[in-house]
Amino acid sequence: MTQTDAAAIPEQRAADARGPIMKVSKLTKHFPVRAGLLATKQNVRAVDGLEFEVGRGEALGLVGESGCGKTTTGRMLVRLLKPTAGEIVFDGKDITHLKGGSLRSLRQELQIIFQDPYSSLNPRHTVGAIVGMPLKVNKINPPGGVKKRVQELLELVGLNPEHYNRFPHEFSGGQRQRIGIARALALNPKMIIADEPVSALDVSIQAQVINLLRELQRELDLSFVFIAHDLSVVRHFCDRIAVMYLGKIVEVGDRVQIYEKPSHPYTKALLSAVPDVSKIGDKATGRIRLEGDVPTPINPPSGCRFRTRCWKATEKCATEEPPLVTTSTGATAACHYPETY
Amino acid sequence: MSTVTTGTPYLEVEDLKVHFKTEDGIVKAVDGVSFSVERGKTLGIVGESGSGKSVTSLTLLGLHNMRATTVTGRASVGGTDVVAAPHSTVQKMRGKDMAMIFQDPLTALHPYYSIGRQIVEAYRIHHKVSKEVALKRAVEMLDRVGIPEPQRRVKQYPHEFSGGMRQRAMIAMALVNDPDLIIADEPTTALDVTVQAQILDLLGDLQKEFNSAIIMITHDLGVITQIADDVLVMYGGRAVEKGTVEQVLRKPHHPYTWGLLNSVPSLHGDASEDLKPIPGNPPSLLNVPSGCAFHPRCAHAMLGGDGPCAKIRPELEVVQGLKNHTVACHLSEAVRATISDEVIEKVDA
Ligand SMILES: Nc1ncnc2c1ncn2[C@@H]1O[C@H](COP(=O)(O)OP(=O)(O)OP(=O)(O)O)[C@@H](O)[C@H]1O
Ligand SMILES: Nc1ncnc2c1ncn2[C@@H]1O[C@H](COP(=O)(O)OP(=O)(O)OP(=O)(O)O)[C@@H](O)[C@H]1O
Ligand code: SF4
Ligand code: SF4
Ligand SMILES: [Mg+2]
Ligand SMILES: [Mg+2]
């Protein structure tokens, strides 16, 4: 394990000649479905041409409305789902079409943590067997043996190594999520895709897990794509945030750009909907109520996909798709009339 | 829309205990909890994972395997004590007198039946109507919970929905009979904020329209702030603090409530600081810590010498003469008031 001085990371990251850990271009996933009276084949355009990069040691947040394609994206990034089109370059290698053995070795470097700490662990296996499984599957015999390595991992995520022989049901939700994290770390990955890793946890345990992920990020120089719908959690964990709407990225920016000065109207609406503990009584004041439904990804609106719910939409928004461009805040956003500050 | 205030709450729970017999011993999942909810009001229940929130609500619906479960106390739903009533009575009340929105949509939705069929069946239990009429109702409900293209979606199966859409479909199913008491167990945990806001609005609208009583179980204190009138904070199967939202979240008096408020990541402030979780893990309900169940994790515990925290179990007592704000903690009121102010100052920062 590489122990990096936390303070040195940003500089190293900027100057890293190896380039970004992940670069995604035109990433697309269409699910064929039958729909309508004539049961004609149509496509759910779940993810439609994503472009983004993740720097080494960086945590990129992926947020957006339910059904906008976050999970589909996450599953493509680790190649649990085959992209319909586009390219995923991981650590300099094109992994879009990997198969068989090379796909298996990719799993060593690129791991996924799932949302649900309850159903993602086999109830009949001991914690030792669960965390050691990736080593067994990949026939890796670490120095000192599998058991020693597993115990190190348990310790790393703040679990008692003596709990090696216990079963998942003997652990709390937060502890189970730690077991899932230990398993993801077993093969020393360079990058982790975390799909709603703390949504099922209560606030206190959630805080424990976030602190743990931050510590691992600092100590192991891990990179993350962090999918979550809780915007305050994302703000806490992620350096940069990509906002998705209906299969597309509408804005990418750093913490300040996204949270203090959102450029895209959708980002602004999303932020205004976060309930704030410090604001009792003024229920939902300042909240932008999005009119209408989320359009269907089978037949998304022409031009800007957000236009059916956007209060700023004009004729142009229906005819021209806005490209992702740099805005006045320095973020990139896909909007003809971005917010100005 | 007349708001009928009959004086007696629609739901009254008194000294409810739910104990499970397990191989390892007796799990005291709920151990003497009392609360009430009037029609038109919303009670928020917060508390750590495993503190007995879901067990409390499942008990109201009579959803436990009674052979392994001992339930005592009283829980009156619209005048019927569901603890004492025969199982068949409670079963008939489900859906209309009370309905539950579950934490996990996959446990409530059957994978082999279309979403529409499941809502239709739920509707027809309480309404003698044709399938066509019930299907119209199903589409209308899907529309109300914000599912796009309900006409098409109604024919789909759960696996064809995204996580958030499944959650909304289940909410539609639970609400199809306009229940008098809605128990929502983490209904928006899987949802993003805009849909969450929509669902909270929907619950609020239904409440206004049907004057229903709502229990909202959640770990999101922001959600509580937005929709609840009163809050019950649970720890280790018991209530540790109870009061109006204003009292509990703006003038909290229990160290566990402080811990919860401190753990919440904020939308403002310094994001580079680590969060401040409550140290340690939730207590084992097989072997609840002596005295105050929170004492092994409490930064303010008085343990040495005459310290009562590990010896005497604190009971709920009124705070500063405000009869509806109660707290179970041995700390003196003055000490609690001072710390409370400090905690809130940080939350607001
Ligand atoms: N196997 C599938 N077949 C057909 N459509 C699918 C399939 N999987 C996902 N979809 C659709 O693709 C879209 C994106 O789904 P996805 O699960 O990626 O959303 P998400 O952003 O993760 O949402 P949530 O926040 O609710 O988890 C949705 O419209 C969903 O219904
Ligand atoms: N059928 C059962 N048999 C034995 N123990 C049970 C049973 N059902 C629940 N429990 C235990 O009762 C306790 C309370 O569980 P409950 O589901 O009410 O927690 P909760 O407060 O809803 O937590 P969460 O926030 O994680 O949903 C837990 O320790 C749980 O393990
Ligand atoms: S491009 Fe037009 S419709 Fe789209 S977000 Fe911008 S203003 Fe709104
Ligand atoms: S009774 Fe003691 S241990 Fe319990 S919360 Fe109060 S101070 Fe802490
Ligand atoms: Mg998802
Ligand atoms: Mg629960």
Question: What's a quick, concise take on this entry?
Answer:
Chain A: Belongs to the ABC transporter superfamily. Chain A: Keywords: ATP-binding, Nucleotide-binding, Transport. The complex is a heterodimer of chains A (341) and B (349). Chain A has 341 residues and is of the alpha/beta class.
What is the annotated CATH architecture of the largest domain in chain B? Answer: 3-Layer(aba) Sandwich
Query: For the record, what is the CATH homologous superfamily label of the domain at 3-34 and 42-109 and 189-264 in chain A?
Result: P-loop containing nucleotide triphosphate hydrolases
For the biggest β-sheet of chain A, the strand order reads: 6-7-8-3-9-10-12-11
What's the CATH superfamily of the largest domain in chain B, by name?
Answer: P-loop containing nucleotide triphosphate hydrolases
Name given to the CATH architecture of the domain at 3-34 and 42-109 and 189-264 in chain A: 3-Layer(aba) Sandwich
Tell me, briefly, the overall form of chain A. globular
Terminal CA distance of chain B reads 41 Å
Query: What structural class do the secondary elements of chain A suggest?
Result: alpha/beta
Helix content of chain A: 25-40%
The level 1 CATH classification of the largest domain in chain B is Alpha Beta
Question: Which features would summarize this protein structure in a list?
Answer:
heterodimer; A: alpha/beta; Rossmann fold; eight-stranded mixed β-sheet; four-stranded antiparallel β-sheet; 11 helices; globular; disordered N terminus; B: 349 residues; alpha/beta; 12 helices; 22% strand; binds iron/sulfur cluster; binds magnesium ion; P-loop_NTPase (chain A); nucleotide-binding (chain A); ATP-binding (chain A); AAA+_ATPase (chain A); ATP hydrolysis activity (chain A)
